[in-house]
Amino acid sequence: MRMVDLIAKKRDGKELTTEEINFIIEGYTKGDIPDYQVSSLAMAIYFKDMTARERADLTMAIVNSGETIDLSAIEGIKVDKHSTGGVGDTTTLVLAPLVAALDIPVAKMSGRGLGHTGGTIDKLEAIEGFHVEISKDEFVNLVNEHKIAVIGQTGNLTPADKKLYALRDVTATVDSIALIASSIMSKKIAAGSDAIVLDVKTGAGAFMKTPEDAKELAHAMVSIGNNVGRKTMAVISDMSQPLGAAIGNALEVQEAIDTLRGQGPKDLEDLCLALGRQMVFLANKASSLEEAEEMLKEVIRNGKALEKFKEFIANQGGDASVVDDPEKLPKAKFLIEVPAREDGVVAEIVADEIGTAAMLLGAGRATKESEIDLAVGLMLNKKIGESVKAGESLVTIHANRDNVEDVIRMIYDNIRIADHAEAPVLIHDIVT
Ligand code: URA
Ligand code: CA
């Protein structure tokens, strides 16, 4: 088999066989096939696309390029949730204990990564003593006994994806649905769960800017998952404005606690229920999505979800009393209000720019070496569609520096007030 012939085949719009796709990914991972040939192939895929079969084969070839996590020692159907990334997305912190409270095993491997705020692990580390450096055996035992545990990223998962993504990044071939879908799904499949619920975000703060593009990506990922034997569903949700009110690490832990108590922001709660009901359904714990949603609401009402969160924190060395005593979470030195300059209705809160403002305060990492400040961040006091009077606070800045002029400027530049505006639709679509 020669790589040049496979590039020509895809260039001419033909379908690559399973063997050909395996040859390409194996050769590329080992270094036998050079970057320039793979970059040419990626461009051919960008223009000629891949069939559903090719996408599934590409995904599995990437999965098989490295180690995979074996969760078979954990009893029950393991359902994972994945978000394509947004601003102030507190759903994982809520969903993990919420679903575990219904005896569904949550075996979460999570990373730190870059972004507006830290990852799930960083957020949880805002709780004194909480740690994710546990052994694989301990992880499995915790999930079997308590239905919930989080462990830091381990093993060399999907090395082909790391190489391919870096190459696509510099060859203008990121924006191919076939390549994005197989990249994301390969990582979820390598992480070992039996079923996958996807939260595909759309809007200014998302990778997919329009609902149509997000829907196409969601269909592509659901099709790959189902074709390789992992039951998969997706929700397409709004990320034109940040989710909930909190953007920051300790602030989002507090928001998650409020939501588990049934007192969280409406949009965060609604999205958690939309994703959670798919998780419960895929875990075979309910016979319909409606029944699944009722079960979730019940464990919020009766306090079991909040109890599960305490149990989870204590199991991993954390101080569970923070749940009832929020004063124990890290606190910023300065609280600075950003008042509206006119009367009106909030019409726009540009999610990615507001996220960047939180990062400038220290809530997230700009580079891998950056230190995170767990206490800082932003609280949105108004969301799109809410009316506001001049002088009323739009945002509260939680900072550990007293000069935040740069952050205030970014907030004013990215929150627009108009005469009329409607709250955006939160759930654009469900893909099953
Ligand atoms: N995120 C990924 O993980 N992969 C892509 O290709 C694009 C976004
Ligand atoms: Ca939030």
UniProtKB/TrEMBL annotation:
It catalyses: 2'-deoxyuridine + phosphate = 2-deoxy-alpha-D-ribose 1-phosphate + uracil; thymidine + phosphate = 2-deoxy-alpha-D-ribose 1-phosphate + thymine; uridine + phosphate = alpha-D-ribose 1-phosphate + uracil. InterPro entries: Glycosyl_Trfase_fam3, Glycosyl_Trfase_fam3_N_dom, Glycosyl_Trfase_fam3_N_dom_sf, Nuc_phospho_transferase, PYNP-like_C_sf, PYNP_C, Pyrmidine_PPas_bac/euk, Pyrmidine_PPase_CS. One of its GO terms (molecular function) is 1,4-alpha-oligoglucan phosphorylase activity. GO terms for biological process: pyrimidine nucleobase metabolic process; pyrimidine nucleoside metabolic process. Residues 282-309 form a coiled coil. GO terms for cellular component: cytosol. Homodimer. PANTHER family: THYMIDINE PHOSPHORYLASE. This is Pyrimidine-nucleoside phosphorylase. It comes from Paenibacillus chitinolyticus. The gene is deoA.
